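User: Hey, my collaborator sent me this sequence without any context and asked if I could get a structure. I don't really work with proteins. Can you help?
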Amino acid sequence: MKLCISTTLLAAALAIVGCSTAPKASKSIEQVMDEGFKGKESLCAKVSKGQGSAQDLETMVGLTYQLTLNTPPKGDLASWTEKTTALHAAAKALAAGAPGAADQWKSAVNCKACHSVHKPD
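Assistant: No problem. I've predicted the 3D structure and written it out in structure-token form, which is a compact way to encode the shape of the chain:
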């Protein structure tokens, strides 16, 4: 009985304080773009050419995950979530060596599709 009451009180206290268990991005969209996607020699370009090491692929998994945790500066959150989740899933598939992962990655890493609706002017 004490455990039940304590758990209930703890839950109520957390609700009042406004604690959130949702993870928050540790890298901004700009940081992710700088670290992984900008330029012809970027990590993304390397991975897209099939030249990424296992460490490169894991780095890309981490960077794409950070994108999923961010909020788009413009455009619909549902669109952002759909695009970043697909990109992250493709990065994970590449890292796992899944069949068809390269095609999945090339489809998901469509910069213009995302930038046209989410990148600020």
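In plain terms: The chain is about 70% helix and 0% strand. You can pass these tokens on to your collaborator as they are.
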